[in-house]
Amino acid sequence: MNVAAGVADNPWFINEIDIAARLGLSIVLGGLIGFERESSNHAAGFRTNILVCLGACLLMLLSIYGFADFVEEPNVRVDPARLAAAVITGVGFLGAGTILFTGKSITGLTTAASLWVVAAIGLAVGAGFYFASASVTIMALLTLWGFNKIEKRYMNAKRDRVIKLEAHDLSSCLVGINNILEHRNITIRKMMMEDVGASGSDGEVAATRLILHVKMPSRKNSAIRLLDELKKLEGIRWASSE
């Protein structure tokens, strides 16, 4: 009886049931965040988040309990936080793979941050901080899902957009394009022109493409309505928005 009590009081000992419970909880919590990422069609989805959380939990368990046999050895210093620190660094490299630079913007930062949080949740579960890990999971879901709704409603319309236009004679359309943008209070941040193809042996330009990086200040400036107005200008072959 005293031996059993001694084992239970040993901070370096954990039984198989507790190990399975912690690993199972890490799958559940990581899966909740992964499900949100998967439903939003992001690079790191359901399985990725589960594996990150599960792996972090296992490494935390290993860091705390895996070297218990060496605790009493002289000249051996056990540091339970050592592997945990390595996990955070390793997840940083994994998160960097989800960040993409498309030429006009950087995407994937939120997914990279969610992977970092999922790893932290896994470490917390492995260390036995159940309340903290569950609370962070709920907060992360509120941030990813709830704040995403707010961002789409109030912030997306204010972001930069790329408008692409193509015309046979772009010079005749510039005044009309400028009038439409001024009427909508749209600010041009960057403008580029490029020739598209050539016709005949004399090298006559077939069309000219205009690429505009613009700032749309309000939700009333719908990209669809803007493209519809631009497309109606005489000489415009097609228009697109990103």
In short:
By secondary structure, the protein is α+β, with helices and mostly antiparallel strands.
Features:
2 domains; 242 residues; 4-stranded antiparallel beta sheet; two-stranded antiparallel sheet; 53% helix; 6 strands; alpha+beta; disordered N terminus; Alpha-Beta Plaits
Structure description:
This protein has 8 helices and 6 strands; from the N terminus they run ααααββααβαββαβ. The chain is elongated, with a radius of gyration of 28 Å. The strands form 2 sheets. A 4-stranded antiparallel beta sheet has the order 4-5-3-6, covered by helices on one side. A two-stranded antiparallel sheet has the order 1-2. By secondary structure, the protein is of the alpha+beta class. The protein has 2 domains: 11-154, no CATH class; 159-241, 2-Layer Sandwich (Alpha-Beta Plaits). Residues 1-7 have low confidence and may be disordered.
